[in-house]
């Protein structure tokens, strides 16, 4: 189907044309109605369009009506070469509401505290004047009286004046009763501006949610698609609305229409709509950012529940408050909290606790080198270096079947080391095939140890000079890696590590036997060099050997499947080798990782500190050294752990020495007895 879709429609006896600059499957009913209203210069909120067409080629004389997105898809796909049936558009205007009549007072009369009918004479007619608009001043009421009673009334008045000799009596004027008026227009309190931009549709909705809760009004999403986002008041007759449009080829939404005034009253909202007012974690996080700006430490969930109730008038659950608290912490992080994030550590207890409190979704793995040193310390009567090597090989196994087989062998040969592993760790933290995150080919924290050795002298400095030394070194590294990433050829789509790996693997992959199982799903069966059969799916980027799944770049079997795909002359699609590799191994991502410059901190004499920052004072001076104290505690705990390991090794050596001494003693007793008997026999024989 072509990119642009041409539509011809007829309205009120006139033909019109539309060009939809998108593919046919992306056109929805709301999008089509919106474009037609724009073409006809109609207000979409005040009219309703009825769309129909006559499919004459089907041999039917009945008209087909378009009621939903599925009908639109059928209509769009019914034409060939951009020739479609003429669309007939009928504009339906809903009947206007009858004007409301205002109740007005009668001239110089009041109904306060009395029966209104008692104030009027018999046969008197009250004519109420219509108010042109709600809230305007009413005209005076006209009172018409029957002329036949004028004489009688006049005579009664004269007789009253003749017999009344009490003089003039003061009569209190009746109270003035103003005409009842409804609440005038009121502002939503959100404070948006035309052409204001938001990074995403969710960001805009978060701002509207916050204003809606704070000012107690409801809204509904009228339209939400890839091009526009329309919000209206929950009361249909209210004029409040927000319309935002998507900026092409971005996720940014810009405010195009905004009426901030509500013409309804809060009490007019339906009870069903009010019951649906629920707080979300994003709303809680936004409130915490406003109440505690820039702070990682926020109140406990119970206090947050009361805070949301007080500020926004909404009740939330404990779990919502907890998730909102975590979301607020995540928003302040430089590194986002995602399941793709993995931390590798040497099992330091304080570090594990800190990661769990700050990065909830991230995964945590153990450095297998540090763990291997602990494992070999608990092995007895064997070569401990061999035990450490066996453990590291066990941790790098890719498939669960092979891991279970190798782990049983490890337990039989080194039972004490296996007992230590089962008592202090879990397999999901150190076994590559059991790890729940994406750790790629990283098993150790060697990069951290390398940093420790580079900053060995800097770690002896005080805090500020140490940070300056670290920033200076990282700035140099960034510049070197930036030049290295830019020096590669544009033809190389992958980083040198993966590019060279696949280059060396290509020779072996070409020699493997490949059987195509599913042409459309790109599924292959590959026989390995050892004679085993492996299943490869190039679309899902998987292989039954699990190397492709874990390392995120093709194994030898997947590469053989790709070579077979390239050699297929009947294929209907194309694929590049870098599409089978994780984006983090692309040369483009490598260059983006170092494109920013790391600047050094200038001298203190050049600092320009704002007055509001100077006026800030620390509430607790000990808080400044909190992280430093924790780092020192971690270092002490690590040293204590190493000392305990050495003490265990010494104790094991002593026990081994005693056992060896006892065994030598047991062996010497028969030897000495034998020598003694030999001497006695020789002496007796002589």
What are the SSEs and their pairings?
Blueprint: E1 5-11, E2 14-20, H1 29-40, E3 48-53, E4 64-66, H2 69-77, E5 87-92, E6 125-127, E7 142-144, H3 150-163, E8 186-187, E9 197-198, H4 201-215, E10 219-224, E11 228-233, E12 241-246, E13 253-259, E14 261-262, H5 271-275, H6 281-291, H7 301-312, H8 318-331, E15 342-345, H9 349-358, E16 363-366, H10 368-377, H11 384-395, H12 400-413, H13 415-424, H14 427-430, H15 446-454, H16 463-486, H17 496-510, E17 513-518, E18 523-527, E19 533-537, E20 542-543, H18 547-551, H19 556-567, H20 587-593, H21 611-614, H22 626-685
Parallel strand pairs: 1-5, 15-16
Antiparallel strand pairs: 1-2, 3-4, 3-5, 6-7, 8-14, 9-13, 10-11, 11-12, 12-13, 17-18, 18-19, 19-20
Write a short abstract of this structure.
The chain is an alpha+beta fold and 686 residues long. Residues 534-566 form the SWIM-type domain.
List keywords for this structure.
686 residues, alpha+beta, 22 helices, 42% helix, extended, membrane, zinc, metal-binding, Znf_PMZ
Task: Describe the 3D structure.
- Helices cover 42% and strands 13% of the residues.
- It is an alpha+beta fold and 686 residues long.
- Helix 12 (400-413) packs across helix 13 (415-424).
- The radius of gyration is 42 Å and the shape is extended.
Quaternary: single chain
**What gyration radius follows from the Cα positions, in whole Å?**
42 Å
Global geometry: extended
Q: Which regions contain 5 or more consecutive residues with pLDDT less than 50?
A: 96-167, 270-275, 621-625
In total, the number of strands is 20
pLDDT average, as an integer? Answer: 79
**Major sheet:** 5 strands, mixed
* Class by SSE composition: alpha+beta
Instruction: Report strand %.
Output: 5-15%
Beginning-to-end CA distance, first to last residue: 118 Å
Question: Strands of the biggest beta sheet: in what spatial order?
Answer: 2-1-5-3-4
């Amino acid at each position: 189907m072509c990119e642009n879709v041409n539509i011809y429609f007829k309205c009120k006896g006139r033909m019109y044309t539309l060009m939809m600059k998108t593919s046919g499957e992306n056109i929805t009913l709301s999008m089509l109605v919106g474009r037609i209203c724009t073409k006809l210069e109609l207000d979409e909120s005040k009219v309703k369009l009825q769309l129909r067409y006559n499919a004459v080629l089907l041999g039917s004389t009945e008209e087909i009506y378009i009621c939903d997105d599925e009908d639109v898809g059928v209509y769009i796909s019914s034409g060939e070469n951009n020739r479609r049936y003429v669309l007939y558009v009928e504009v339906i205007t809903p009947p206007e509401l009858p004007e409301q009549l205002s109740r007005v007072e009668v001239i110089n009369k009041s109904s306060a505290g009395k029966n209104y009918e008692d104030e009027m004479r018999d046969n008197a007619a009250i004519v109420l004047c219509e108010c042109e608009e709600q809230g305007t001043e009413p005209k005076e009421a006209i009172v018409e009286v029957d002329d036949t009673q004028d004489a009688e009334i006049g005579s009664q008045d004269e007789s009253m004046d003749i017999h009344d000799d009490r003089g003039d009596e003061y009569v209190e004027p009746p109270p003035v009763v103003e005409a009842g008026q409804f609440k005038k227009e009121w502002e939503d309190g959100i404070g948006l501006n035309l052409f204001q931009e938001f990074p995403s549709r969710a960001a805009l909705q978060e701002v509207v949610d916050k204003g809606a809760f704070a000012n107690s009004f409801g809204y509904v999403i009228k339209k939400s698609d890839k091009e526009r986002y329309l919000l209206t008041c929950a009361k249909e007759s209210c004029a409040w609305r927000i319309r935002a449009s998507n900026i092409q080829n971005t996720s940014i939404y810009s405010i195009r229409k905004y009426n901030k005034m509500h013409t309804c009253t809060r009490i007019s909202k339906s009870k069903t709509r009010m019951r649906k007012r629920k707080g979300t974690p994003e709303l809680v996080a936004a409130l915490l950012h406003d109440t505690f700006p820039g702070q990682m430490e926020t109140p406990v969930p119970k206090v947050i529940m009361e805070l949301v109730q007080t500020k926004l008038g909404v009740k939330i659950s404990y779990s919502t408050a907890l998730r909102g608290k975590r979301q607020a912490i995540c928003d302040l992080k430089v590194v986002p909290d995602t399941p793709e994030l993995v931390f590798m550590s040497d099992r330091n207890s304080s570090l594990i606790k800190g990661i769990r409190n700050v990065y909830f979704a991230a995964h945590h793995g153990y450095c297998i080198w540090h763990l291997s040193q602990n494992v070999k310390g608990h092995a007895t009567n064997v070569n401990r270096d061999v035990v450490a090597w066996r453990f590291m090989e066990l941790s790098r196994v890719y498939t669960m079947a092979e891991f279970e087989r190798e782990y049983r062998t490890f337990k039989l040969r080194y039972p004490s080391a296996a007992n230590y592993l089962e008592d202090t760790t879990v397999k999901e933290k150190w076994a590559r095939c059991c790890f729940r995150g994406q750790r790629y080919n990283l098993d150790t924290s060697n990069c951290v140890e390398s940093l420790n050795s580079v900053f060995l002298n800097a770690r002896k400095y005080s805090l500020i000079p140490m940070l300056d030394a670290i920033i200076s070194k990282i700035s140099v590294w960034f510049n070197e890696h930036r030049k290295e990433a830019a020096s590669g050829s544009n033809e190389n789509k992958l980083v040198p590590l993966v590019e060279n790996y696949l280059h060396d693997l290509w020779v072996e992959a070409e020699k493997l036997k490949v059987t195509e199982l599913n042409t459309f799903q790109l599924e292959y069966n590959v026989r390995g060099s050892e004679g085993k059969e492996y299943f490869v799916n190039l679309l899902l980027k998987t292989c039954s050997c699990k190397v492709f799944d874990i390392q995120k770049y093709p194994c030898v079997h997947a590469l053989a499947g790709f070579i077979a795909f390239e050699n297929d002359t009947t294929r209907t699609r194309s694929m590049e080798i870098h599409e089978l590799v994780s984006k983090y191994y692309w040369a483009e991502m490598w260059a983006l990782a170092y494109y920013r410059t790391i600047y050094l901190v200038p001298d203190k004499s050049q600092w320009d500190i704002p007055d509001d920052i100077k006026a800030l004072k620390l509430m607790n001076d000990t808080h400044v050294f909190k992280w430093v104290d924790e780092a020192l505690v971690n270092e002490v705990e690590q040293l204590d752990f190493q000392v305990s390991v050495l003490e265990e090794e010494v104790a094991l050596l002593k026990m081994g020495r005693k056992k060896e001494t006892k065994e030598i003693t047991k062996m010497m007793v028969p030897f000495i007895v034998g020598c003694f008997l030999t001497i006695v026999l020789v002496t007796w024989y002589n």
